[in-house]
């Protein structure tokens, strides 16, 4: 079995490091790639389109409020790219308007509140690895708030 590859598109260093800590705490191997803003995310998508990247993440965790291009713009680009549009995407946010939530759902992603405590972050980490391991399994939204 291959090592789960998780793509996190998040500008908040603390949020990224808390998730990495929770994943490390599980004691299982994983690959963790971070993109710090929407511009880097769009470059990632272009790299796949042009064949400069071959390995797809098993899941993408995407912040809604990113610098340069927001999460909905990035999600739209992911869904428009045939090489990536099958990947499970979760938009993590502290707040989202009803219109944003509707747009995210229409694009086939799930909008969830960012975990607010360590127990919830650890539950999210466990769900991420489990979802990556099991073909066709969808993340439980219970851990995602």
How is the topology of this model organized?
Layout: E1 5-9, H1 13-25, E2 31-35, H2 38-49, E3 59-63, H3 71-80, E4 88-93, H4 98-106, E5 110-113, H5 118-133
Parallel strand pairs: 1-2, 1-3, 3-4, 4-5
> What is the averaged pLDDT score?
89
Unreliable runs = 135-145
In CATH, the architecture is 3-Layer(aba) Sandwich
**Beta fraction:** 15-25%
Strand-pairing-aware structural class: alpha/beta
Q: How many beta-strand segments?
A: 5
Order of helix and strand elements from N to C terminus: EHEHEHEHEH
> What is the level 1 CATH name?
Alpha Beta
Number of helices: 5
Summarize the amount of helix as a percent range. 40-55%
Largest sheet: 5 strands, parallel
Instruction: Categorize the overall geometry.
Output: globular
CATH superfamily: Response regulator
The spatial strand order of the largest sheet comes to 2-1-3-4-5
Number of structurally distinct domains: 1
Rg on CA atoms, Å? 14 Å
Would you tell me which CATH topology applies?
A: Rossmann fold
End-to-end separation in angstroms reads 30 Å
Walk me through what this model shows.
The chain is of the alpha/beta class. The protein has a single domain (5-133), classed as Response regulator (Rossmann fold), CATH 3.40.50. It has helices spanning 13-25, 38-49, 71-80, 98-106, 118-133; strands spanning 5-9, 31-35, 59-63, 88-93, 110-113. The chain has a five-stranded parallel β-sheet with strand order 2-1-3-4-5, sandwiched between helices. Helix 1 (13-25) packs across helix 5 (118-133) and helix 2 packs parallel to helix 3. The longest helix has 16 residues, at 118-133.
